[in-house]
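User: Is it possible to get a 3D structure for a protein together with its bound compound? The compound here is nicotinamide-adenine-dinucleotide. I've pasted both below.
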Amino acid sequence: MGRLDDRVAIVTGAGRGIGRATALRFAEQGAAVVVNDVDADPAAEAVEEIKKNGGQALLSTHNTVEMANAEAMVKACVDEFGKVDILINNAGITRDKTFHNMGDDIWDAGIKINLYTAYHAAYACMPYMREVAKKELAEKGEVSHHRKINFTSSVAALTGNPGQANYTAAKGAIIALTKTLARELGPFRINVNAVAPGFVETRLTQPKTGESDFGIPDQLRNMALMMIAIGRAGRPEDIANVHLFLASDDADFVSGVTIPVTGGQLGG
Ligand SMILES: NC(=O)c1ccc[n+]([C@@H]2O[C@H](COP(=O)([O-])OP(=O)(O)OC[C@H]3O[C@@H](n4cnc5c(N)ncnc54)[C@H](O)[C@@H]3O)[C@@H](O)[C@H]2O)c1
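Assistant: Yes, that's possible. Here is the predicted structure of the complex:
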């Protein structure tokens, strides 16, 4: 028996890194998973991997920076699997620059891809999470099961991080959004929580080369590693496991919290 049997989950940014590990882990635990990513190739690979392992998955390349795309993503999920029980808002990027050099374009990219994707996807789920739960409560006095929304903040929002004004503003807003939605949606047995990863080895944290938008300089990577009590970098699966806990029935009485998953990072 899986911990997510009969559940339907949407995971954004699921083509790579933490999102992919989460999609695979959820499918292994019995969930049907919508694998959403703007990069079609890695997302299609994740879908194939889930299917090869005997799971159910649907590819979505909707860019939820736009509300209409978030609505289309959720509709595709419901058309295919009949419902949505779990939303994992994981899509995110870094576009680092010192604050005085940032300008609107880089600021907006950080805010839109980290905050608006999460806002839009959660909003688009409301008819299928809040309304369905409301109907169950009216008709039967209880919901069939708790529904779950997990957001992704970052330890950088808890500590601050030079060069990441846009990113930390978005990730900090996500912590506040998590608390407010937990209060609004709690009466409908919808749990809303966030994870705040520390340093996890993915494309986001790979050694930066040349003009690539992705990665961080070696010096900063080494500094981050030295601050981790557990003595190693995080793995995508470390975060996926916490998403799984929050999404499972084991966490039905956990709501409104942001869980740092950092290996005991100093300051986090
Ligand atoms: N890796 C870390 O150390 C770390 C630390 C703290 C927080 N996080 C957060 O974890 C989340 C996952 O990051 P990761 O490290 O796995 O990065 P990653 O770059 O490996 O994966 C992120 C995925 O999101 C996708 N994506 C980007 N914009 C998207 C959009 N608009 N819609 C759908 N998908 C989109 C990318 O194509 C990519 O496949 C992000 O929100 C990130 O900010 C990561």
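The CA atoms of residues 44 and 162 lie 35 Å apart. Residues 12-13, 15-19, 36-39, 42, 63-65, 90-93, 113, 117, 152, 154, 197, 199-200, 202-205 surround nicotinamide-adenine-dinucleotide (CB under 6 Å).
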